Amino acid sequence: MARVLTLTLNPALDLALRLGEFRLGEVNRTESTRLDAAGKGINVARVLAGLGHEVTVSGLLGADNETAFVKAFADCGLRDAFIRVPGDTRINAKLSEASGRVTDLNGPGLRIPGHALEALTARVGTLVTGHEAVVISGSLPPNVTPAQLAGLITLIRERGIPVWLDTSGPALTSGLAARPSAIKPNETELAGWAGRPLETSQARLEAALKLNSEGIEDVLVSAGSDSVLWAQRGSALEATPPRVTVLSTVGAGDTLLAGALHGVLSGWPRVRTLRFATALAAESVRHVGVGDPKAEDFESLHTQTLVRNPSTGEMHG
Ligand SMILES: Nc1ncnc2c1ncn2[C@@H]1O[C@H](COP(=O)(O)OP(=O)(O)O)[C@@H](O)[C@H]1O
Ligand SMILES: O=P(O)(O)OC[C@H]1O[C@](O)(COP(=O)(O)O)[C@@H](O)[C@@H]1O
To answer: Per the database record, which ranges form the Carbohydrate kinase PfkB domain (predicted)?
Structure first.
């Protein structure tokens, strides 16, 4: 198993609210609520640790409400290398309705003192040696710039360590210029980069191959229940997720990225890796939280995940 470092510059406490139907401007009564330590890199770390990897989590964490994070790190066996910053980590609300619709309300995050970002850069510089991969996931705090994100990617890439990046908007555009090894945009995030809608599989394939040609070796594009496209150095595979009953899609993208990285780090063939990651992400949407490879019917989800060559249509068994 591998050693992986995940960086979450803007973690969050996820407040998951379940209700029949959300009515704007009215008093809504929820069926359940729960608050979990989250943020993209932390979710990825949970999945990787569950799959047996040795995972260190770092980034920038509010010192004033860290209890849930510290407990989650201990429960999941994650090594805590977060830099503490003054104040509270943001709370992101996730409304899941009976229809399967999920509404995210994500906060901006804490303002980061300059010395904290310097401390993070120094910590990453010393920590990164000995790790087989670094995952940088999620949005940036309001006063951390896309250029500073690119600087972190460059620092890690200069050590020859692969960087998997999952972010959006200007942070994605700037991050791409620093040539991460792999990215995992969803359809909307990729369309934001391309500057045009990418509603068809063909449009997503063209955009992903363009990124390959610009030096991003692995481009994983998720499109919810429709498909996952994986373009690797100019050659693509596409998976169709199994049909599942959706309870919460929060954490699905993080599970997909972690599942794919697990396959790559394990030296699995690409078809096996894509099938596994897609099935694990589908497993995650059936409940709150990340995907569970120990789910009783995981083998069946795996079998129902179809993988094909998007250019020829040839199916992979
Ligand atoms: N309704 C769904 N049914 C089955 N699988 C899903 C569904 N929604 C998401 N997934 C799985 O989760 C992955 C990531 O979901 P997606 O919504 O595209 O990413 P993100 O969470 O980053 O926006 C998909 O590629 C798919 O494997
Ligand atoms: O940093 P951002 O882009 O605001 O995203 C943070 C949110 O992303 C999540 O990690 C979920 O991400 P995915 O649904 O893409 O897997 C939540 O736990 C968290 O609230």
So the answer is: 20-293
Residue nearest to atom 5 of ligand 1 (CA): 282
Check if 80 is active-site.
no
Give the binding-site residues of ligand 1, using a 6 Å CB cut-off: 186, 222-225, 228, 241, 244, 246, 249, 252-253, 256, 278, 281-282, 285
- Could you report the per-residue pLDDT of 104-155, keeping only the tens digit for each? 999 999 999 999 999 999 999 999 999 999 999 999 999 999 999 999 999 9
Best of 167, 222, 227, 228 for a ligand 1 pocket test (most atoms within 8 Å of beta carbon) = 222
Tell me, yes or no, whether 176 and 195 share the same domain: no
- Residue count (the chain): 317
164: left (phi over 0), alpha (psi -120 to 50) or beta: beta
On whether the pTM is more than 0.95, the answer is yes
Same domain for 135 and 203? no
Q: Which atom of ligand 2 is nearest to the CA of 257?
A: 16
**Residue appearing with tokens 């020829």:** 312
Half-sphere exposure of 198 (CA within 13 A, CB side): 25
Residue nearest to atom 1 of ligand 1 (CA): 225
How many Å separate Cα 74 from the centre of its chain? 21
Overall domain count for the chain? 2
Which residues span the domain enclosing 145?
Answer: 1-21+29-180
Residues 16 and 141 in one domain: yes
Q: Residue 283 sits in a domain of what CATH number?
A: 3.40.1190.20
Residue nearest to atom 27 of ligand 1 (CA): 278
- Which residue of the set 36, 254, 292, 297 is catalytic? 254
